[in-house]
């Protein structure tokens, strides 16, 4: 088994790793790097046409945004994803296409991409050539995965973005019985200076500011990533309102968030057991999300 990094090594963004044996060539992730200019993985054109498959860890642009470019450049294989990653990925990629209008992406490539997804469940064994792959929950966003590769002699784990503690939405990464000869680990925020306050401290400070602003008759604007962060913030706000720590006020959202929240509701089985129980029993938490987004356009 051989590894080649075409992006994501020594940088944040455009994650893209080639895993190959004598008979099989597979990419783990195909992301773009956003900035003043959009940077792509440095994949040779002849390699793109020879790939057997792509496995996508989750639906953020730095891991999935290069897919339309690959299909437009001649890739004709399958893309393996979890169900939430497929649904969120379509929303994220469509938004990327609309805003960036990349000139090297064709209608034919986009059409072929939509036909090439293969949905997998966590822990399924997926055979591609002479290797076996699987997805393991990584606790980052709904549907996010660590990916394993095994050629019978060597076992590899690629962490993708991961989170070990539980959140409002998800359990932490499933690290039970993990073993490998090689570990590729995401290291964003892994530097010695990347030390952050606890969630309770951050949330407490935010809620104090929100309460003061509401009581003073002001309005609060919270910019947020649409996939993952926005849902966490809305659930946090609802908990604080229900507990009386901040006044109950109407919440309005705009942009991709409303689409992302619908996908979360449809995929609540991939979320925390507590959230599943509250949702499936008709609890108020996700009904609140529907009611408070009715003003979003």
Defining key terms:
single chain; about 300 residues; alpha/beta; Metallo-beta-lactamase, Chain A; Rossmann fold; 2 domains; six-stranded mixed beta sheet; five-stranded mixed beta sheet; 11 strands; about 35% helix
Structural topology:
Blueprint lengths: L1 E6 L8 E5 L4 E4 L16 H6 L2 E3 L5 H4 L2 H6 L5 E4 L1 H18 L6 H9 L1 E3 L6 E3 L2 E7 L7 E6 L4 E4 L23 E3 L14 H17 L13 H15 L13 H10 L6 H8 L3 H9 L5
Parallel strand pairs: 3-4, 4-5, 5-6, 10-11
Antiparallel strand pairs: 1-2, 2-3, 7-8, 8-9, 9-10
Helix pairs in contact: 4-8
Description of the structure:
The chain has 297 residues and is an alpha/beta fold. The protein has 2 domains: 2-184, Ribonuclease Z/Hydroxyacylglutathione hydrolase-like (Metallo-beta-lactamase, Chain A, 4-Layer Sandwich); 199-292, Rossmann fold, CATH 3.40.50. The chain has helices at 45-50, 61-64, 67-72, 83-100, 107-115, 199-215, 229-243, 257-266, 273-280, 284-292; strands at 2-7, 16-20, 25-28, 53-55, 78-81, 117-119, 126-128, 131-137, 145-150, 155-158, 182-184. A 6-stranded mixed sheet has the order 1-2-3-4-5-6. The mean pLDDT is 89.
Quick gist of this model?
This protein has 297 residues and is an alpha/beta fold. Helices cover 34% and strands 16% of the residues.
């Amino acid at each position: 088994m051989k590894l080649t990094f075409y992006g994501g090594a020594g940088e944040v963004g455009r994650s893209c790793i080639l895993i190959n044996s004598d008979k099989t060539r597979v990419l783990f992730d195909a992301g773009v790097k956003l900035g003043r200019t959009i940077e792509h993985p440095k994949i040779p054109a002849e390699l793109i046409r020879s790939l057997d498959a792509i496995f996508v860890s989750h639906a953020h642009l730095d891991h999935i945004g290069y897919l339309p470019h690959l299909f437009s450049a001649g890739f004709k294989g399958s893309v393996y994803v979890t169900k939430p990653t497929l649904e969120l990925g379509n929303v994220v990629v469509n938004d990327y296409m609309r805003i960036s209008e990349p000139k090297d992406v064709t209608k034919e490539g986009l059409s072929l991409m939509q036909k090439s997804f293969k949905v997998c469940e966590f822990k399924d064994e997926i055979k591609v050539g002479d290797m076996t792959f699987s997805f393991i929950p990584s606790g980052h966003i709904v549907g996010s995965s660590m990916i394993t590769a095994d050629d019978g002699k060597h076992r590899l784990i690629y962490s993708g973005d991961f989170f070990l503690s539980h959140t409002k939405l998800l359990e932490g990464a499933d690290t039970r019985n993990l073993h490998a000869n090689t570990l590729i680990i995401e290291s964003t925020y892994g530097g010695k200076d990347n030390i952050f306050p606890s969630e309770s401290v951050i949330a407490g400070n935010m809620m104090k500011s929100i309460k003061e602003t509401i009581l003073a008759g002001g309005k609060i604007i919270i910019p947020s990533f649409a996939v993952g962060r926005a849902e966490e913030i809305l659930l946090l706000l609802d908990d604080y309102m229900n507990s009386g720590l901040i006044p109950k006020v109407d919440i309005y959202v705009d942009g991709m968030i409303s689409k992302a929240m619908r996908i979360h509701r449809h995929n609540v089985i991939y979320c925390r057991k507590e959230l599943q129980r509250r949702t499936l029993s008709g609890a108020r938490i996700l009904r609140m999300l529907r009611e408070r987004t009715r003003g979003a356009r």
